[in-house]
Fold:
Amino acid sequence: MELLKTQIEGLLILKPQIFIDARGLFFESYNEKTFESLGILDKFVQDNQSLSQKGVIRGLHYQKPPFAQAKLVRVIKGAALDVAVDIRKNSPTYGKYFSILLTGENNVQFYLPSGFAHGFVSLEDDTIFAYKCSNFYNKDSEESIIYNDPILNIDWQTNKPIVNDKDRKAQSFVDFVSPF
Structure:
């Protein structure tokens, strides 16, 4: 597993070693010992998966402490632009975002520690997005920042976003008070 750091402290890109032969391919997507050797010490307790059509934006979501979640995300099929916004109030990159292309072909994984709002846009129909979480989902601690906030100015790479009502009614960044 190759680990690449990003310009935002804590966000990590992971590239698995892929074995390809006439049958297809194989790679290890998660191994606790390997991740520990890379400095990722979170215990993942819940796996989630979604299917999205092209243009669907999910996010920007986070859970407040004590239910905050680190996430390990990847795309199984299709393509998505994954976005992490630093919401750690004492961070030098507070309010900045990092985005990365995740596809079923590149098999890249993206690690987000707690303290980030997370979202993605599906760039192809029938994109299957999978993620591991370090804490169980808690409905009462879930919050969102609106995906199209002008302060964050995220380039979602779509002119026709498909967004559910909950995400469309999320708070603006100017009204956001970080619990981190």
Observations:
- The chain is about 5% helix and 40% strand.
- Residues 2-17+29-168 form a domain with the Jelly Rolls fold (CATH 2.60.120.10).
- The chain has one domain: 2-17+29-168.
